[in-house]
Amino acid sequence: MKSIVLRIVYFCRQNNGNMKNKGTQKHPVPWILLALLTVTLICGGLYSYFGGFKKIKPIDTEEFAKYANPISDLTIRNGVRIVALGEATHGNAEFQQLKLDIFKILVEKYGVRAFALEGDYGCCETVNRYIHDGKGTAEEAAAALGFTIYRTKEMANLIEWMRKYNETAAEGEDLRFYGFDMQLYDYNYKYLLEAAKNHSLKTTELEQLWDKDQDAFSTSSTPDQKAKVIEQVKQELLQLNDSTTVQAVHFADVLLQNIALGKVMDDRSKGIMLRDSLMFVNTHWIMAQEEARGNECIFITGHNGHIQCRHDYGKTGKAMGALLSDELGEAYFAIGTDFYKARVSLPKLTNKMKRSNHTFFSHDPLAEAAKKCGFETCWLDFSHIPEGTELFFRVSDYTWLGDVGEGYNPLMAVLPMAYRDWDNPATLYDAMIFVTNARPINILP
After folding, report:
1. Residue 319 lies in a domain
2. Cα-based distances in Å from 21 to 15, 28, 190
3. Does residue 385 form part of some domain?
4. Which pLDDT belongs to residue 46?
5. pTM for the whole thing?
6. pLDDT per residue over 297-314, tens digit each?
7. Which residues neighbour 435 within 8 Å (Cβ) at sequence distance 6 or greater?
8. pLDDT given for residue 26 in this prediction
9. Are 326 and 344 in contact, with CB atoms under 8 Å apart?
10. Does residue 37 lie in a domain region?
11. CA–CA separation, 51 and 241 (whole Å)
C-alpha cells in the first residue's frame, strides 16, 4: 500500500509541474487526489476486514490452554453478591446465549435466583409476570422488552427456561426477571397506574398524563408537570406504609428517572453519566429485593462498558460497574467478553428501524489465542493465572479489545480503532469469555 501511495504522490508532482507549462490544459490534480483517497479507503477497509495492523506479539497458545476452560467449568469466588456479565456487542447471538448459559450455572451451583438485564424495569416486569405463569408466549415477552436487540430466539429461550424452572420451584425459590435501566417509560406508567388503582388512590391527574390515541405520554404537559404528578402518587403510596407498595414506588422512581434523563440527553456526556449512576441505584434496589427473599447474590447483564470494574467518564463520572466495584470490592465479580471475529447486526445509518450485518476483528491477542487453541467459546479467570508468568503479564498489560456499541459508522470499516479499546483486561474484569466467530442475531417477527 505504501508503494502505491508514493507512486501516486510522485505522479501528482510530475503532472503538477507539467501543468504550469501548459496553462490552458485542464488540471488533473483533484482527480488524482480522489483516486488516492479511494485507494486509501479500499486498502484500509481490507486491512480492517482481515484484522487490522498487527503489531502485538501473539500469546503462547500452550500457556493459554493451561488456564482457559469451557463455560461449563465456570466458577465464582466465595462472598460474591453481584455477578456481572458483559457483552462486547449487543448484536451477536453468542453473547445473548451466554446469558442463559451463565445463569443456569449460577442458579444450579450458587443458588442465584435473580436475573437483571440492561433493560427498563417496567418492560422486564412484563417478562417477570410471564415467567410466573403469565399469559402469552416467550417470544411476546421478549418483544415487550422494547429493544430490537432482545427480540431474538436466544432471549426467548432464556425466558422460557426461567418459566419452566418456576413451574416446579419450591415456594420462595422462584426465579425473577428484573431490569435496571430507565430509557423507556410505557410499562412503568402502565404498572404504576395499575398499582394506584389497586390501592384506591385517585388517578385522574395521572391518567391525564397519557395520550391514549398515541399510546404515549401526552405532549400537553411539560416534563416538570409530569414529574410533579408522579411524585405526588409516589408520596401517597409511601404514606400507606404497606409492603405491597414497594414495587409501585419503584415504578414511580423509574418514571422520574426517565424524565430526568430526558432533560440532559442533548448533552451526550451528561446523559451517559446520569444513566449509569441511575442504573447503579436501580441495581441496589434489586439487591435489596433479593436480600429480603434471603438471596445473597444476583446476576446482572449489560454491555461491557457498563459492567467494567474500572470505567471513568472524565473526572466526574463512573460507569455502573465501576461504582459497584468501588462499593462492593471483592463482592463484585465482572466477566467481560470479546470476539476474534464478529459479524454484528447493527441499525442502519439511514434508517434505525432496519438492520444490516457488519464484520469486525477485535485484534485482541487473547481472543486470537482462544481461536488458535481450537475453542469456539472459552473462559479465562485471571485470578487462576500465576503471577510472574508470561500470560499473567499479558492480561495485566494494555492491549486491544473489541467494543461495538448499538450503532454503525462507515469509519468503522476503515479505522479499526473506531471499534477497539486500548485497555488493561485484568483491571476491567475478573474474568473474560472469548468467542472465536460470533454470528449476528436474527430478529424475530
Report:
1. yes
2. 10, 14, 78
3. yes
4. 61
5. 0.88
6. 999 999 999 999 998 887
7. 92, 94, 95, 337, 338, 339, 340, 342, 367, 376, 377
8. 54
9. no
10. yes
11. 59
